Amino acid sequence: MLTSTPVPCLVDGVSFATNTTFDVVDPHNASKVLHRVCSVSTKEEVDKIIESSQSAFLRWKNTSIDERKAIFTRFIQLLEENADALIQTSVNETTASPPLATVDLKILGLDNLRSSISELSDALADRPLPQQTNGEHATIHRQPYGVIFAMTPWNMPIVLGIRSFTLPILAGNTVIMKTSEYSPQTHYMLSEILHRAGIPNGVLNVIHIRQQDAPQVVEDIISRRQVKKVNFTGSSRVGRIIAQVCGKHLKPSLLELGGKAPVIVLSDANLPKATSSILWGAFCHSGQICMSTEKVVVHHSVHKQLEQLIKEKLDDGKIIAAADGALFRGLFCHESANRFRGLIVDAINLGAKIVGGSFDANNTSNVVHPLVLTNVNPSMRIYYEETFGPVCIIIPFGQNRDSQELEDSEALDIANDTAYGLSASIYTSNHERGKALALEIDAGQVHVNGNTIHDVGTMPHGGWKESGWGRFNGAEGIKEWAQTKTITVNEPAQYPI
């Protein structure tokens, strides 16, 4: 396992040092440097990385599916053997609690890998088309793109790191993975373990880029003719920039961006269980998940009852955040915490009320406590903006509506009144009504009586609207990284020339 400092890049299977470095600090103590990290910053460094990835692709694309499966099966075994070190590194670099980092690896990460391996053969299988009347035989083939540029985030660094390179590599591509500047050692360790599992040199090259160099270096990489497709998981703000760069250079992309996940609570919902789900969806990882529950749209007849259940849960003093020793830790940087406090202050100044939890506007740390707001309206920033913090808002619906159809229409209007469309939930005892409403919600995945935070390796994962495009996970996720090619076989024919 990695012990050297600065943390190197990994290019062509060996450590790759650079002249430029940056520091990674403890998110709960900005004066404490965790480690120094090598940073790619020059054209010459990019040249070497691109050459390695392209050379490896010419060999890797011809490997059999069974060879690829064997390497990633070994990868799973080594991840399990090195779980403690990987989990601890994630806890150190990010604000994940030990239980959450454990879920990130042992449940989400390994599930994603196993699902990808099991779906691979079917996803890449040739598909014959019906024979044409002229006797023509046609087959659809799936072939890899080439070099893929993957940019992976810090907030669930293990599973999101794994999926950024596993799906493209299994499909026969090579990958340049840019780590998050907040979790570079965690991402480096993933690549180191994959190399120990037998991945050939150059199939996965790992680089770090400091923030001030990222715009120039990222565009340099995307612009290279050898780079054929890009994936990015992160904020919609940065996703917009990546999309512009990809468009400029005519490169396809997969973007999984921000969210403002709504939960609709109907009058027949199991309120205690809906309450439990709402609070977990809003506060897990201190709200720093793109699928976090942000907007609760509740039928007016059970509005006050739901608020009372939430108040009782939050006022018992057990749901809190702390730098250490609590299930929920702080936000990933002080700038994020300051922005979060600004959203709450704006809402309260404009009339929002705290249902439960606590808020201190004068707090200057990155630790913010969970809370729930009511009396929220569209004039407040929090109504539309993704908070990326431990809060959700409650909005009643259905009052003065004289039919279920009108009530449902109002609930859908409120739920869909957002630029985002990643995840949503509906709580009801009527599954058919829940499914009918789910079809009308503008989101990539909707869960009836399930949490908005939901990511299973076999299920396509991605967003609508400003939450991005393309899909990770399962067969659909593998197909993202294989181009279709139609081959026809014909008897020679005479044309009218």
Automatic annotation (TrEMBL):
This is Aldehyde dehydrogenase domain-containing protein. One of its GO terms (molecular function) is succinate-semialdehyde dehydrogenase (NAD+) activity. The active site is at E256. Keywords: Oxidoreductase. PANTHER family: CYTOPLASMIC ALDEHYDE DEHYDROGENASE (EUROFUNG), SUCCINATE-SEMIALDEHYDE DEHYDROGENASE, MITOCHONDRIAL. InterPro entries: Ald_DH/histidinol_DH, Ald_DH_C, Ald_DH_CS_GLU, Ald_DH_N, Aldehyde_DH_dom, Aldehyde_DH_Superfamily. Belongs to the aldehyde dehydrogenase family. Residues 20-487 form the Aldehyde dehydrogenase domain. SUPFAM superfamilies: ALDH-like (SSF53720). The lineage of its organism: Eukaryota, Discoba, Heterolobosea, Tetramitia, Eutetramitia. GO terms for biological process: gamma-aminobutyric acid catabolic process.
